[in-house]
Amino acid sequence: MNKTERRQALLRAARDVFATRGYHEAKVDDIVAVAKVAKGTFYLYFPDKRSVFSELVDLLFQRLGAAILQVDPAADVDAQVKHNIRAIVAVLLDDPALTRILLSHATGMDPAFVTKIRSFYDGVKTMLSLSLAEGQRLGIVAPGDTKLLATFTVGALKELLAENAVGETPLAREAIVDTLFCFLQAGYLRTGGSSPAPALPVTAPSVTPARPRRRR
Amino acid sequence: MNKTERRQALLRAARDVFATRGYHEAKVDDIVAVAKVAKGTFYLYFPDKRSVFSELVDLLFQRLGAAILQVDPAADVDAQVKHNIRAIVAVLLDDPALTRILLSHATGMDPAFVTKIRSFYDGVKTMLSLSLAEGQRLGIVAPGDTKLLATFTVGALKELLAENAVGETPLAREAIVDTLFCFLQAGYLRTGGSSPAPALPVTAPSVTPARPRRRR
Amino acid sequence: MNKTERRQALLRAARDVFATRGYHEAKVDDIVAVAKVAKGTFYLYFPDKRSVFSELVDLLFQRLGAAILQVDPAADVDAQVKHNIRAIVAVLLDDPALTRILLSHATGMDPAFVTKIRSFYDGVKTMLSLSLAEGQRLGIVAPGDTKLLATFTVGALKELLAENAVGETPLAREAIVDTLFCFLQAGYLRTGGSSPAPALPVTAPSVTPARPRRRR
Amino acid sequence: MNKTERRQALLRAARDVFATRGYHEAKVDDIVAVAKVAKGTFYLYFPDKRSVFSELVDLLFQRLGAAILQVDPAADVDAQVKHNIRAIVAVLLDDPALTRILLSHATGMDPAFVTKIRSFYDGVKTMLSLSLAEGQRLGIVAPGDTKLLATFTVGALKELLAENAVGETPLAREAIVDTLFCFLQAGYLRTGGSSPAPALPVTAPSVTPARPRRRR
DNA sequence: AATGAATGAGCCTTCATTCAT
DNA sequence: CATGAATGAAGGCTCATTCAT
Q1: Torsion over CA of A118, A122, A124 and A127, rounded to 10 degrees?
Q2: Alpha-carbon distances, residue A191 vs A136, A163, A185, A213 (angstroms)
Q3: Under DSSP, is residue D141 helix (H, G, I), strand (E, B) or coil?
Q4: C26: which nucleotide lies closest, measuring CA to C1'?
Q5: Chains D and A in direct contact, meaning 3 or more beta-carbon pairs closer than 8 angstroms
Q6: 3-state secondary structure of D172
Q7: How distant is the Cα of D7 from the closest Cα of chain C, in angstroms?
Q8: What separation in angstroms does the CA of B187 have from each of A28, B114, B176, D140?
Q9: Which protein residue's Cα is closest to nucleotide E3 at C1'?
Q10: Which of chain A's residues have a Cβ under 8 Å away from the Cβ of B188?
């Protein structure tokens, strides 16, 4: 087993132990036991326990970052949004252990760590928020505080995935995507050409037929 | 300072330290330092570190349990839902430290503990899910998997409150309530009597001008 | 309840707790709980935990010292020895708790303490040894190392009393005295002047007259 | 130093500290200081403080168990009894520290522990008692309550060894064996068929051929 | 590189003792 | 005198990290 493989083995072992026990309850002894290496070996590949955890979280962040595409309002928005949801769900459900770490166990750590994780989510929310704002400009997103809407979205997604990561009743992947999409759509997306459902008081509704429509 | 006051002081101190550092990073030394008592005093009031934490979580559960009212579909549903949202928000924002504990730091603990907290959320979701099912029967809730809708709702609420508990930019309380309410309403509530806004794939979207509008 | 009574109550409570749990496992909390006084009160009557224990041991020593009489070889030795045995047994069995303390729990303490207790036993053995030497001079004690004989005697007595102090099956007091006396008598006492000191009732003398028998 | 050696070193260190200070006063810090290892090392070899103690006691029990032979009444009883005494004395005096632990410091511990030690002694006494009963059947042991005689014997032996374990004046080993043997023989052994069981050289056996007298 | 024995700082908890009321 | 809340030193044990082999 070469260096890279051993490193991977340790990362996988760490991931599983962290996911099962949480950061503090996961002992280095447990990790090396799972990886079937000696304790000292662990420290040949990682400077300390913290950094393995950190690396795992970073890895998931990368995957998520790579999966999420900026929505181009000029193209088929529905499809892009669905694609994004699907991609995120895929990344997270493909590695439930890592997901569990991110969603549940990444807390109660150094403030530095919590900050890091929060930063990621903040990034996601900001990105989403900007997209939503753009969508509002184009009339395909209901008016409203986009920051809040982003928060709602992320929260709903996290909760859903957390539930599935815990894993008692794993939902069908596409079902999750569809349901969440519909929820969002009926919530603040105005993409389907279907009903308007403004999320917040629309001042001056107007009856003028000139009114711009989405997805007509 | 009598026994009850001292107990309260210790609980408050523990709450703050747990909220800031998380369970494992919170040392009994920190707690007693904040409470300005000797270490032994802590153990006069609580059998161990775990139990203070447990008590804090229970306390919040109780408050939340007391705040949430079962929605009576016969009466003004909007008002009741808003009231519930407002009550929950009030409980949690009144004690951001405790909220932080519940939302962030209660994980990575004994499985027993995680189970306990999950049980609480499961309870909330089940209750909500039942209400939603009843609402569906009455036609004031969009069709769909009520369990999932409940998950979305709880997730959105948690995320929102977590963000506020972290506390950099506390939103106006009523703004939170309104925004969330609107989100839910446009999402799956059909209380306004107006248009349906189906939560799940709407067959035949239509472009008919007769299309019903909400909030016109 | 006056000062003396309270002091006695505390001593009794301490005695019982020490006897049951041993010195280290006996907490001041236990003692005051049994005595039904507050913790601080304990320290009004005794400077510290150690000294109560010490006082209890001293008390028993005093009683034993008072009970044991120097044997006068001129008078009826048998009776005096029996009396001594009886007296010692009486003192110790009258207060099994205190006995348990002396025999079992007085160890594993400060070297100072162990020394004290050993001193007592040394005193007893020395006294006994001197008596035995005098007895040897008078021909009523078998020759031999009197120090050793004293040790045997004390050991046999201690073991017997320890067994009874533990108290599962308390022997009849007089039975103890008789048995021990016979043991000693057949062992090294030559007091009866009579036959080879039958340890117990002699039944069935034997058939072969040729072979010298004991206990014929 | 390999694992076994280190383990032995720790056991020895623990034995000495326990023997000197007793269980409660012996701190793990003391033990590792004597063994010249770090505190953590102790816990690599033993799960806790209790278990070292337990192991030490067990060790001595084993040695004693191995040393004591069931007496075969068909063969030379005297020799066998002497051998047993010699073996026990050898085991205990070879390791005075361990002996001290067994005889003095094994008390005042968990009831579980006290029970264990008492069980051992009970076992010894029972074994001895059975042998004595068998001896009575064969006419080589004086009649009497064998349980009591066993208690006396064990007590005498314990006291003797305790005295020697404390170690101010170590007696010659064979002297101990002889003296104890004579004590027992004159006490309840009827083995030699020889003279009327004088505890020690009988001067002037008597004139009357019919009735053997001692010390008349 | 790999091993795993050794390290020791640090934590939770206990409990004898003190002291304000 | 009596109380019992408060104190804080001390001890058993854990575990991340180091290092000799």
Answers
A1: -170
A2: 11, 28, 7, 9
A3: strand
A4: E15
A5: no
A6: coil
A7: 24
A8: 46, 30, 16, 101
A9: A38
A10: 183, 186
Which of strand E's nucleotides are less than 7 A from any protein C-beta? 1-20
Residue B184 has pLDDT above 50, yes or no: yes
**pLDDT the model gives residue A190:** 58
Candidates C18, C151, C174, partner chain D, best to mutate (most D CBs within 10 A): C151
Split at pLDDT 50, 70, 90, the class of D61 is confident
Q: From the centroid of its chain, how far is CA A202?
A: 31
- Contact predicate B142/B196, CB 8 Å: yes
| C107 contacts C23 by C-beta, under 8 angstroms | no
Q: Residue B25 carries which DSSP code?
A: T
For residue A170, what are its two tokens? 């794993």
User: How near does any CA of chain D get to the CA of C11, in Å?
Assistant: 19
Contact yes or no for C61/C89 (Cβ under 8 A): no
D185 SS3 class: helix
Chain B residues lying within 8 Å of A207, measured CB to CB? 216
Cβ-based neighbours of D206, under 8 Å, separated by 6 or more:
D212, D213, D216
* F9 C1' to C137 CA distance, Å: 59
The secondary structure of chain A in percent helix, strand, coil, rounded to multiples of 5, reads 65, 0, 30
Task: Quote the pLDDT of residue B27.
Answer: 96
C173 in Cβ contact with C89 (< 8 Å): yes
Best B182, B184, B190, B216 residue to mutate vs chain A (most A CBs within 10 Å):
B182
Helix extents (H) in chain C: 3-21, 28-35, 39-45, 49-67, 77-94, 96-100, 111-137, 146-166, 173-187
Q: Which residues 16-45 of chain A have a CB under 7 Å from nucleic chain F? A: 26-29, 39-40, 42-43
Q: How far apart are CA D45 and CA D56, in angstroms?
A: 14
Cβ–Cβ below 8 Å for D142 and C166: no
Domains and CATH numbers, chain C: 1-46 (1.10.10.60), 50-216 (1.10.357.10)
The closest of B102, B31, B100 to B62, measured between CA atoms, is B102
Q: How far apart are CA C18 and CA A13, in angstroms?
A: 52
Q: What tokens appear for B80 in the block?
A: 């009741």
Supply the pTM of this predicted model: 0.83
Sign for the pseudo-dihedral over CA of B30, B35, B36, B40: negative
Give the model confidence (pLDDT) of A62-119 as tens digits. 998 898 888 787 788 888 888 988 998 899 888 888 888 877 665 556 666 777 788 8
Residue C24, C-beta contacts closer than 8 angstroms, at least 6 positions apart: C108, D24, D108
Q: What is the predicted pLDDT for the residue at D93?
A: 85
Q: Is the CB of D39 under 7 A from strand E?
A: yes
Query: Which residue type is seen at B152?
Result: F
Tens-digit pLDDT profile for residues C71-115: 787 788 888 888 888 998 888 888 888 888 877 665 556 666 777
Summarised one tens digit per residue, pLDDT across range A9-22 is: 999 999 999 988 88
Give residue-wise pLDDT tens across range A31-45.
999 999 999 999 999
CA distances from B53 to B31, B47, D80 (A): 11, 11, 67
Q: Provide the 3-class DSSP secondary structure of residue D189.
A: strand
| Residue type, position C172, single letter | A
Strand partners, C189: C141
Instruction: Read off the amino acid at residue D177.
Output: V
Tell if the CB–CB gap between A198 and B209 is shorter than 8 Å.
Answer: no
Provide φ and ψ at A90, rounded to 5°: -60, -50
CA distance C31 to C36: 8
Q: What residues in A contact B148, CB-CB < 8 Å?
A: 160, 171, 179, 183
| C–D CB contacts, 8 A cutoff, strictly below | 157
pLDDT of A214 = 40
* CB of A211 lies under 7 Å from some atom of strand F: no
